[in-house]
Amino acid sequence: MLSVLIAIIVVAILIYVGIVLYQRYLLKQITDLLNKKSDLMDLPVASELDEVGNLNLAGSSLEEYQNLQDDYRNVKNNKFPEIDELAQNGQQNVNDMKIFDARSDVAGIKAAVQVIQSESDRIQAALDQIKQEDDDQRNEVKVLQHKYQELRKNLLAKDMTYGPSVDMLNDSLQRLENAFNNFAKTVESGDHKKANDQLQQLHSNTKALEDQLDTIPALYIQLNEDFPGQLDEIKGGYTQLINHNYAFADNQIPDEIDELEQKIAENLDTLGNLRLEAVKSNNDLIADRIDSLYDVMQKEIDARTEVDGGFQTIADYIAHAEKQSHTLLIEIDRLGQSYVLNHNEDEQAHELETQLQDIRNEHDKDAEAITNQPVVYSEILQRMHAENDQLETIESKQTEINDSIQQLIEEEKDARRTLRQFDMEIHEIKRHIENLNLPGIPASYMDYFFVVSDELEKLSANMNQVKIDMKQIDRQLGMIDKDIQTLAKKTTELTDNAALSEEIIQYTNRYRHSNETVDTASKRAQKLFDEDHDYAQSLSVISRALESVEPGMVDKLTASYQQQKSTQY
């Protein structure tokens, strides 16, 4: 029982000690927060407000400043007393052992301190910004004032480089200075927002003026010096070329020069109005047109150089082609007496001669023009190039025609060699048939043989004509070549059929007395051989008979014959 009592006493003591310690903790927090409040009260916000208030603010800047004053006044008159009251209540609640109420008071003090801290920081930052804007804008006043002084000095010192634009540039600078004076007054009045808007516009307009001052001199030099100088050079060059018998197609150079001078004068007016993008565009067009004038004159100078160097070359080329044409026509006439010209070589050669005459006439006209009057050398050069191309084509066709007619001689030689070969081959076939000593030759074979012989005789007669048609002869040679190949094949078939038929008839004699069918077939085959001279049928009859009594023997006899065969037929 005593131990329980002791335990209760110990717990009570511990609770009491805990409460006492927590009271001290809360009292310390209250003291720390009051010290924090004192620190906040010592912040220089009030003095900063007084300092900014001496800046003679106006407009939205003044309105913002007044709002900051009201905010600080609210903090000073309401938040600081609120902390004192909460601290007093908190201390009393701690003493009265109202721990939870005291905790609530401490939380309230913390929140109030945080609000004061946040508001003080915000007010301070806003005041700093107002002072910074005031300093920046006053500095801008000095910077811009110096810049406009430099711009005016520049305009006065270099007014000749700006040409007709100098008056409007001065007007622009005057407007900038007037706007600057308004800006300076606004800065002095303390209306920072309005001053900021004016400053942005001043920067934009100043940058535009500086860009104009940088751009205009180069444009003015083009209009006042470069272009007039180039046109003077073109005028002088044009006069010299005319004096040296140059001419120009659709001679627009003097009119173009007059028009360009008018364009330059108009663009100077445009420059005076500060329409710089239009001036740039117009200058580019003027430069292109001036370059075109230089190109036109240079084209004629280059053309004359090429004409002077190549005109006689074309004349020599024409003479060479005419000589070739004359020689070709003579050769065509000579060969035309011996050969039929199947490709209209004569007409083609005369057509080329006509083309040459046209080229000669055109070239002679240009030669006369060069001698007697100013000429457009570029046009003559163009015709020279065309004449050269035509002469190359004519020369190529002359060579083609000459090769074609000269080939007739070789074709005739080849045809005669081929005819001799055909004669030799048909005589060899004839001797081969005679050497076979056959009882007779089939009529169909002899008919074909005589057809081929007649074709050879006809070919020989055609080749012995005074005027040979090689196209017709080539056609005949092709036909005869095929017919001789066919005749050779028929000769081989005749030879093989006769030889095999005779050999197989002799072989089957061994079966005649023992086989009536073979005997009958042998007699019929012999009759076909001796009387009808149908060696193919004779071979067919006797081969079937032999196969009936000795299968495979016909193939063996045929193979043996082919191995022993000594002639090509």
Distance between the termini: 155 Å
Number of strands: 0
Count, helices: 15
Helix-strand topology string: HHHHHHHHHHHHHHH
Largest sheet: none
Shape: elongated
Q: Share of helix among residues?
A: over 70%
**Spans of 5+ residues with little confidence (pLDDT < 50)?**
none
Whole-angstrom Rg:
64 Å
Q: Which class do the helix and strand fractions yield?
A: mainly alpha
% residues in beta strands:
under 5%
Mean pLDDT: 83
Word description of this protein:
The chain has 569 residues and is mainly alpha-helical. Helices cover 87% and strands 0% of the residues. Helix 7 (253-272) packs antiparallel against helix 8 (276-336) and helix 8 packs across helix 9 (345-372). The N and C termini lie far apart (155 Å).
Which helices and strands appear, and what pairs or packs with what?
Elements: H1 2-41, H2 45-53, H3 59-95, H4 99-157, H5 166-189, H6 192-243, H7 253-272, H8 276-336, H9 345-372, H10 377-435, H11 443-463, H12 470-512, H13 516-530, H14 535-549, H15 553-564
Task: Please tag this protein with its features.
569 residues; 15 helices; 87% helix; mainly alpha; elongated
Report a brief summary of the structure.
The chain is mainly alpha-helical. It has 15 helices and no strands. Helices cover 87% and strands 0% of the residues.
